[in-house]
Structure formats: structure tokens, C-alpha cells
Amino acid sequence: MTEAGDCTFVIFGATGNLARNKLLPALYHLDAADRLPPGARIVGIGRRDWDTAHWRGEIERHLSGRVRNGLDPAVLERLLARCQYFRLDITQAARYAELARWLTETAVLPPNMVFYLSISPAYYATVAGALAAAGLNRSEAGWRRLVVEKPFGYDLEDAQRLDEALHRDFDEAQIYRIDHYLGKEMVQNIFVFRFANLLLEPLWHRNYIDHVQITHAERRGVEERAGYFDTAGALRDMIQSHLLQMLTLVAMEPPPTLDAESIRDEKVKVLKSVRPIPSSAVHAHAFRAQYGPGKVDGAAVPGYLGEPGVPPESTTETYAALKLYIDNWRWRGVPFYLRTGKRLAEGISLIAIRFKHPPQQLFRTTQIERLEPNWLLLGIQPEQCIRAEVQVRESGLDMRTRVSQLDASTCAMDPQHIDAYESLLLDIVEGDRSLFLRSDEVTWAWRIVDPVLKRWSVERDYIHTYPAGSWGPPEADRLFDREDQRWRNSLALVG
Ligand code: BG6
User: Which of 29, 216, 242, 285 is flagged as catalytic?
Assistant: First the structure.
């Protein structure tokens, strides 16, 4: 007997990297935490000639080493008992009728179904169409949810085409667009930090904030992903999605309620208020570069052009920085600097908010040479923390100050913290769409970066470079509005 909350979690691309490295470990952890509905079943769809026993063996092999605190045999057994494999080449439309029959007629498979497209985005429309042709989009017997991962399209027009294709067969309410950054604990904490504390609200404003920086830096290079990355580039890969999502959370107004539409309405308002970048201003607002050879942890590493699968003439950016203005009452005139790069000096995601200088130089006549502005730092990863930098008086006979840091949390690298996919998969099963992107949200995010992408796509003869293992080219500083603005690279005190 299946129960109302039970569901069948169908993973297309079950033998691929995302399923192995993220989805199945997340399902394991949810099962371990007793958060999977008791009758939940997991169906793996793949082209390989495997059967259920073989797939279960593969899952077991991959899970060991990927789960916290080692594999618990009882949880593993429970999880594996939920798993069944169905062999299907996703391009063979004719076989979806057979899949539909099997899914609906196998008694242990609950009629509520999640279709998770853990496949190349090029096949999203094909699979959605084939599911619908087999009647699997219809919700009479149980709910049906379609999950897609970024990238949602290649540019604005392509994203709109993809949306039209998905909307032909699925209602917007059935579509869950994943941006895994929204599942990260600290990203969710931005919301709580802002709206559960009265203290900050009056300061969260152009009168007091000088600028905002949102950084995602990676030490890793492009690894084996050149095939995808070389056509995408850092602006599409990180800024259009993850960084703009973080920007919306920093900049949005409090929603009237916590329901998905209220939250997403506020995020869309932010994206709509971002001042469009005209083609003639792209150079003033955007910067790109590519890593050359360099050193990471003392070892020589190749440049981007030396990575496997990268075309020798490629001018794809591995570093991108963008300056945006949000033309609304709260933010008018405050620059938001977004920056991302591969093969940088550190792996860190950080939101750094710099406040303005106090209006009068009260301490002019003292020994204090320079008053540092206040910073508020939100460490997203690897350290999760909220830290404020304030001036304090140093003890002694003279009037001197130093910067002191106030930590709102333990600022720890907690190896136990849950993976973004755990909370996102649970939301899908429970039908909470607040952490998933709505169609208009994606479109507005594309509108912001589209002029830059268009300009860059025709200027393909030259790109700045930076040594692997550095903080990127100094030329990126040209985006700053003023001389006293500079990149904040860490949570540590700047000496
Ligand atoms: C992905 C990008 O969406 O996010 C990758 O395609 C990037 O290029 C990754 O490395 C970063 O995610 P995380 O969770 O490792 O910070």
C-alpha cells in the first residue's frame, strides 16, 4: 500500500555524475534522517544494459566514501530496497509508453512522481515532450513534478525557447528549476539574517552601504568539463545563475509571507530593477580573463589552453567580474560587484558588504590616522559565518583604534553540514517551490547578462590572462567606482 505522501523519484541520467555524486548521497542522507516518505521509491533510468541488482551494486560502491560518518548498513539496505533500474535510451520516444505502463502498473511504485532530468540540457525538451506524450505529465492519479538543473538555456532567446517547450507539456507549478546555491545553508541564512533581525534593517540601504561584493572563487581549474565550459564561460556558468541569486537575496525587500510566490515575486523585482548595461558600456561594467599556467599549492599547473579538451585558440573566460546597479529606492547608486573565477588563489564564496565612512571626522585631532569603514561579511563556503568588522579603541594612553571582528556564529568549517541537494530534494518531495527558480526569474537574470555576452561573443580576438593560483588580473579593478574600493578576498582582517 502506498500512502498519500509517498512518491516515485525517477532519475533520468541515473548512471551519470550528478546522480552518483549528489543525488544518491542526498537521498541516502534523507533516508538516514527519516525524511524520505516511508513508501518512497527511486527509479534509475539509464541507457546502459544494467538491471536493478547491478545498479544497486553501483550505488553501494559510489556511496561509500561520499556519505558523512561512513555507510550505515541498515540505512543502505533500506535505500537500496527502494531502488529499481529501468533501461531506456531517452531519445527513443516510442519506449516512453512502455515506461509509463511500468511506472503506473508496478504496485510498489507510488503514483506521485518526480522526474529528475539529470541529463544534458540539450535533451530537456525532448524528454519533457516524450513524458507528456506518454501521459506522465498528467496529475489525475498523483502529482507529477519535473526537475531541471541549470543551465536553463544558452542565452535569453534560447532560455525562452526552452521555457516554451517545457510549458507546452508541464504547468509552471510542476516545474522545479534547481540552482543548487539556494540549497546551501549559508545562502538560506542570508534570508534569516536579514529578516529575523531588526538591527540591520535601517542600515540596509544606500544611505549607509558603500558597495556590495559577491565573490565565488575556485582553486580548481576546468577539470574534465572543457566540453561544457568552453562554450559557456564563467559569466554564464556562475554569474547568470548562482551569483545573481545571491544578489537577489541580499537586495530583496521582505516578502509579505514565506510562501514561494511571495519570495519569488520579491526576487524578480530586484532583477527587474537592475539597470540594463548598454552595449557601449559593457567595458565599464564587465571584465573577463582566462588563467594561464601558474602554481597551486607549490605545484605547476597548466593554463586553461593546456587543459584537456580546450581548443588551442579558445578565448573563453574563466574569470568574470560585473558591476551592477539596482535602480530602486533602497539601492540606487550602490554598486554591486560580482566576481567569479577558476584557478584563483583560494576557494571561497563570500558576500562582503562595505559601509560608508561616518560623516564627520570627529577624530581628526587624535593620533588615529585612518578610520576603516565597517564591513559585514557573509562567508558562504568553506567557512560558514556572519562577521561584522567594527572599530574599537586600543587600550593605552593615546587615542588609537583597531578593527575588531564580531562573529555571529562559530565560523567553522563544519564537515557535518548538509549538502545543498539534501534540502532541495526534500523540498521537491514536499512540494515547496520557494528555493526553485520561477520562469520569469530566469528570464530576467538572462536579460542582465545578455548584453555582455553578446558583446563578448563578437570580441573574440583577445582576452586578458592571469597566472593560475593568483587573484586574477589587476585590470579587473577598473570596475571600481572609487579608489578606496578594492576586492575583499577573505574573511580575515585586512592588515
Ligand atoms: C556549478 C558550475 O554550477 O557550480 C561549476 O557549473 C562550479 O563550474 C560549481 O564549479 C560551484 O559549485 P560549488 O557548490 O562547488 O560551489
Answer: 242
